[in-house]
Design brief:
Layout (H helix, E strand, L loop, with lengths): L1 H10 L2 H4 L5 E7 L9 E6 L6 E7 L15 H7 L3 E5 L9 H18 L5 E11 L1 H9 L4 H4 L8 E7 L6 H14 L9 H4 L3 H6 L2 H4 L9 E6 L3 H16 L4 E6 L4 H6 L7 H13 L9
Parallel strand pairs: 3-4, 3-5, 5-6, 6-7, 7-8
Antiparallel strand pairs: 1-2, 2-4
Length: 294
């Protein structure tokens, strides 16, 4: 175990290795009464006060995954002067998709109301997520009904970074997958996107692109994706085009020679191209406040 810890420390960027460990508060319920999955973790620098907040949503196909699967992110963001929050939500098929999205909104509502007690600024929140978490992050940053129900204004959302999602336009993704499987004589999955997201009307309603519009205070987007994955690339470019048409600041970046899991796991490594894009994006978003450490 000691050897593994030493190896992990050696792989961390020098900036983090020299910084103090984050203060971690785990398994905080974000609603009452709380299901065992309705909890979040907060990572904060010692003495944190009025720092911008990263709100992270794990992946796992809406059916698996956990808030503890954060790799280097808490340490990296804390070392850069953020408070980092990682949330759980209830999972399909135990709940339906609408309930799951409301869980994420309730979690962010808790952050907005309580993060100042942990040194965070509730008016400066960056929403991120990987895979299914990317869809959830992008959806709550564009469909304002979820956060309005929790008393969170879109003005508190300063940026959104979905990482390698494939469901920003559900009807297009469902049609693409079903056409491919039909042409190749492949069976449909027993519990694919069509069933997970409900009716055709719900497919449109759970699609991020449906809710993008000007003058909604939708935050700037950095859409990260694996360049060699055609479906994820098409979905990233589709969302990027819709955001751009609505006058919302957006950059779409395709990382090469990586994979769906590695683009997530490598965020924070010094020479990782997606990480460099993320840092550049954060410098732009927070340049006016001057609060993000280099």
């Amino acid at each position: 175990m000691k050897r593994l810890l030493l190896l992990a420390t050696a792989l961390l960027p020098a900036a983090f290795a020299a910084d103090p460990q984050p203060r971690v508060t785990s398994n905080i319920p974000y609603t009452q009464p709380a299901h065992e999955r309705q909890v979040l973790d907060v990572y904060a620098p010692p003495g944190a006060k009025n720092l911008p907040v990263v709100f992270w949503i794990h992946g796992g196909g809406w059916q698996t995954g956990d808030k503890t699967s954060v790799q280097l992110k808490p340490q990296i963001f804390v070392s850069k002067g953020f408070v980092f929050v990682s949330t759980n939500h209830r999972l399909l098929p135990s709940v339906d998709m609408g309930t799951l999205v409301h869980d994420v909104a309730k979690s962010l509502g808790w952050v907005h109301k309580n993060i100042a007690k942990h040194g965070g600024d509730p008016t400066r929140i960056l929403v991120m997520g990987h895979s299914s978490g990317a869809q959830l992050a992008a959806l709550i940053c564009t469909d304002d009904r979820y956060l309005q129900a929790e008393g969170v204004p879109f003005s508190a959302l300063k940026a959104c970074v979905p990482v390698d999602g494939d469901t920003y336009d559900l009807p297009a993704m469902i049609a693409t997958g079903e056409t491919r499987r039909r042409l190749h004589g492949q069976p449909e999955p027993k519990y694919g996107h069509r069933l997970k997201f409900g009716t055709e009307a719900q497919h449109r309603d759970f699609s991020v692109v449906t809710h993008v519009a000007a003058n909604k205070n939708i935050p700037p987007f950095l859409i990260l994706h694996v360049a060699e994955q055609p479906d994820n690339t098409a979905q990233a470019q589709r969302l990027g085009a819709v955001l751009k048409a609505a006058g919302i600041s957006v950059k779409v970046f395709g990382a090469r020679e990586t994979s769906h899991s590695k683009i997530n796991a490598n965020l924070g490594l010094p020479d990782d191209p997606a990480t460099k894009e993320l840092y550049s994006f954060l410098d732009t978003v927070w340049s006016a406040s001057g609060r993000t450490k280099k």
